[in-house]
Structure formats: structure tokens, C-alpha cells
Amino acid sequence: MDRTAPESRHLSTHVDRPAEEVYAYASDPTHLPEWAAGLGSSIRRADGGRWTVESPMGRLLVTFTPRNEFGVLDHDVTLPSGETVSNPVRVIADGAGCEVVFTLRRRPGMSEEDFRRDADAVSADLATLKRLVERA
After folding, report:
1. What is the pTM of this model?
2. Three-class HEC string of 99-132
């Protein structure tokens, strides 16, 4: 199926912890393997503020947006093919808790099944993030 307009899914979870706490945890790249198994199992600092992640797809290069007061956790992932995927993520205050929203974008040529599989992986990662920070 040829797609001319990008397709996105907004995947989210409500976390019963203050947005500042969730953001502080999730914005630390060294915590990524603890909650984002869908991305990779290990992470280490690379050059220029970037990070390398060992993943099932091979070595990925990840660049995170600078820490900020707005709850923005955007990051770009450069795949072994050289393709870069931009991932918008937000931690949004909601009373005493917050909502974490990940915008998953369907890449050109990606099958519906692969897009669903990516959505399932992101949803599982968000559930793990929720479980970890709510235990703190």
C-alpha cells in the first residue's frame, strides 16, 4: 500500500506520580534499558551528546532533546540502515499524576502488521515505565 500522508498513533498511559518525577526518570538515558526494552537492552554515551543502543536490529544511534521544563522527551533514532526515525514523547501533568504520550509514526513502506507490532512494543514500554515509577 502506497501512503502519501503519514499515519500516526498516539499511545499513552496515565502514571500516578507527579510529572516532574516521571520526566526526571524517563529523561535520563541510562534508565532507557530498564523501561524501553522495545528500543534496546543496553545504552552508552557516544560522541556529541548522542547515545548508542544495542537492539535486535543492530546498533542504533539515539539523540535526545535537551532536558527542558515542558516534559518533552523527543528523541531521534538512527537505524543501522542510516534512516532516522523521530519519536515525539511528552510527559503531561494531570492533577497529582501525569500522562505519558508517545507518537508512533508509520514509516514509508511499513506494513500494517509491522506498524501494529511497533505499537504493541511501545505500549509495553509505557506500561513498564508506569510500573517502575509508581513503585518509587
Report:
1. 0.90
2. EEEEEEECCCCCCHHHHHHHHHHHHHHHHHHHHH
